[in-house]
């Protein structure tokens, strides 16, 4: 029987959060319970309050003495243990993405204006570097992540351009949640697909979503509902961004 590793992981996080809320008033406050409070924040607060790993529901025989581990180390050990037990590539990719996010040192502003300025600057630079239309980059990003730098999909795709762990590694992306790295990696991959399919945007988008081999296999957009809808939506966004750019000139 194949374990649903992602479900186990999410349940463990829920269990730990529940224990922290019941044991530490500070962690049960409205501030701590906001959507901006990450699992890493809970672990860090737990360490400050002197809560050990057994109190959090983590097995010391597996994760060691919590007094010698930072919250990040506890999380890493837990993720590594789940990865070792995972026989499912989808669950493995999700866990790799979650571990990458836990380890990320990327600067991601909480202020939306500052965030979009960073994203737009990175888009402009990647567009100039790789020769890909900035409006096409924005359209892909809109569909992939809605401009959320910490997005992780149900298949384990990461960040703004939703790079799979293996793809990110092959593109030289060491931190998939770093805005510049993620955009550069995604745009490089998109440029390669545009090159592979002789500038045909629809086929390049299909390859970005389903992989170039699927496009080659079907000699066109694959007959997958997800991919067909993906190409349709990105094309719509692209046309909208093109119209906005024209109107602003």
From TrEMBL:
SUPFAM superfamilies with a match to the protein in the record: Lysozyme-like
Pfam families assigned to the protein according to its UniProt record, in alphabetical order: SLT
A GO biological-process term: peptidoglycan metabolic process
Highest rank taxon of the organism: Bacteria
Domain Transglycosylase SLT residues, every copy: 123-226
InterPro entries per UniProt: Lysozyme-like_dom_sf (IPR023346), Transglyc_AS (IPR000189), Transglycosylase_SLT_dom_1 (IPR008258)
GO cellular component terms, A-Z: membrane
GO molecular function, one term: peptidoglycan lytic transglycosylase activity
Family stated for the protein in its record: Belongs to the transglycosylase Slt family.
Protein name, entry field: Lytic transglycosylase domain-containing protein
Species for this entry: Ruminiclostridium herbifermentans
């Amino acid at each position: 029987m194949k374990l649903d590793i992602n479900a186990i992981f999410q349940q463990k996080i829920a269990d730990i959060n529940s224990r922290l809320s019941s044991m530490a008033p500070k962690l049960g406050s409205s501030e701590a319970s906001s959507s901006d409070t990450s699992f890493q924040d809970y672990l860090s607060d737990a360490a400050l309050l002197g809560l050990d790993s057994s109190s959090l529901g983590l097995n010391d025989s597996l994760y060691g003495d919590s007094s010698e581990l930072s919250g990040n180390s506890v999380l890493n050990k837990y993720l590594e243990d789940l990865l070792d037990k995972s026989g499912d590539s989808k669950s493995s990719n999700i866990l790799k993405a979650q571990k990458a996010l836990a380890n990320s040192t990327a600067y991601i502003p909480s202020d939306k204006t500052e965030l979009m300025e960073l994203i737009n600057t990175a888009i402009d630079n990647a567009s100039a570097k790789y020769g890909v239309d900035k409006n096409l980059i924005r359209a892909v990003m809109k569909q992939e992540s809605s401009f959320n730098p910490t997005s992780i999909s149900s298949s384990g795709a990461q960040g703004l351009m939703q790079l799979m762990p293996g793809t990110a590694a092959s593109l030289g992306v060491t931190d998939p949640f770093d805005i510049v790295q993620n955009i550069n990696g995604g745009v490089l991959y998109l440029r390669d697909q545009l090159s592979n399919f002789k500038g045909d945007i629809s086929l390049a988008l299909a390859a970005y979503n389903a992989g170039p081999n699927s496009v080659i296999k079907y000699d066109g957009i694959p007959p997958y509902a997800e991919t067909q809808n993906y190409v349709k939506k990105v094309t719509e966004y692209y046309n909208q961004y093109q119209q906005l750019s024209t109107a602003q000139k």
